Amino acid sequence: MAERDGKDRSGRLIEQVTGSELAGLDGAGEALWLDVIAKMDEVYSDLLRYETDLEAKNAELEEAQAFISSVIASVSDILVVVDADGTILQVNPAFVRLTGISAADLVGAKLATRLAPADRAAATDLAGGSGEFSDREVRFLTAEAVSDLMAVACSPRLDHAGRHAGAVLTGRPIGELRRAYEALHRAHQELQQAQRKLIEQEKMASLGRLVAGVAHELNNPISFVYGNIHTLDRYRGRLTGFFEALAAGGDPNELRRTWRIDPLMEDLGPLLEGSLEGAVRVSDIVRNLRRLSFSKPGDRMAVDLDKVARNAANWAARAKGGGTRIDFDGCDGALVDGHEGQLHQVLVNLIENAFDAVAGERDPAVAVTVEAADGMVEVRVQDNGPGVAPAVADKIFEPFFTTKAVGEGTGLGLWISYSIAREHGGEIALRPVPHGACFVLRLPQRGPEP
Ligand SMILES: Nc1ncnc2c1ncn2[C@@H]1O[C@H](COP(=O)(O)OP(=O)(O)OP(=O)(O)O)[C@@H](O)[C@H]1O
Ligand SMILES: [Mg+2]
């Protein structure tokens, strides 16, 4: 229509110019006019093109605006845009729903007037006055009273020149966050409880294994002591008979034979020795078990593992050292939190085990090294003995596992040591080495004094 109008108009113009006024013009003037008219035509068609371009751009802009509006409308968090003076420029439907006030009434109002009275002091910060991102917990005025407590994040807004132009506020009810936090907290507590239960179960299982082991280990010596006592009781009967017959005037040689006194006297020695050995074994087991004192966390103190390891090495060397060379390589700052006595016991056991292991070697040597690094203190006890056979490596920490002869080891040493290390928040491990065995006690280093 516009095009046809244009053509009509320009046609009429040509007609007018050619029809009346051009009649009096000469040839040059006519050409000039025609030129002007052609230019005008050109400008006009350019204008038309710009108009259609503009219309297309407009349509695109409207589409983009509709898209942004629909996104803002479907955001469930509240969204409020304010200018640098704290005047509300835009709100989203979530904010309208929260306050129960129409967008038309909210836009143009000062943010401070829309906050609950107690929170009005926050208005300047919320309008981005500080120029920094900030978080606030505020309540908004609603049509009836005030909203739930909202966690509002404020992002400052800058204009095209980078100047402070206000802020964008987004937020959601704290209740929701709190519920999520509480659910997380509950899950965390449940997890901790499950973990405690597991540790408890593990402790019970290990106690069960210990008790079964103790029962088994004690049963052996007790049963042969018991058997021996029965035999001794029978022998007592025979001796009583023999002495009574002797007192009645019988022939001593005859009576000795009748009452089988000679084999009885021969048997008496081994019987008593066996019983004594059984009793010693029982007392060894009990002594080892008594060492196993479970500590209260309260009685811990600073322990210098370097000093303890040195003492333990001297101690063990006195008991089992023999001709074994012992090298000690200590260090400063090997402080841990714990019970000196228990840690001493752990190290004595590790070093005694090493001495036992090298007993058959031609050039027996044991090396004790103390190191403190990365918040841990490590004591390594290495020997040049036969090492721990792979087949038993996972059994050596079990109670009563021993490869030593009866009377030489109860098999409780490593088990007790391991329990003590665990109670101190550390561990004992067998470290692979090319020759011999290397046991490592690792404990957390004591932190600096507060
Ligand atoms: N340094 C070592 N080299 C080789 N084997 C070792 C070494 N230390 C421990 N073992 C093995 O681990 C087993 C268990 O050691 P543990 O200290 O628990 O008991 P034990 O020394 O046999 O007896 P106890 O310490 O109760 O007197 C030992 O019998 C031995 O077989
Ligand atoms: Mg031992």
UniProtKB/TrEMBL annotation:
Residues 64-120 form the PAS domain. The keyword Aminoacyl-tRNA synthetase does not apply. Keywords: ATP-binding, Coiled coil, Kinase, Nucleotide-binding, Phosphoprotein, Transferase, Two-component regulatory system. Residues 174-204 form a coiled coil. The keyword Transferase applies. Residues 213-447 form the Histidine kinase domain. It holds the Pfam family PAS. Its EC number is 2.7.13.3. GO terms for molecular function: ATP binding; phosphorelay sensor kinase activity. It catalyses: ATP + protein L-histidine = ADP + protein N-phospho-L-histidine. Transmembrane segments: none annotated. GO terms for biological process: regulation of DNA-templated transcription. PANTHER family: SENSOR HISTIDINE KINASE, TWO-COMPONENT SENSOR PPRA. NCBIfam families: sensory_box (TIGR00229). This is histidine kinase. The lineage of its organism: Bacteria, Pseudomonadati, Pseudomonadota, Alphaproteobacteria, Hyphomicrobiales.
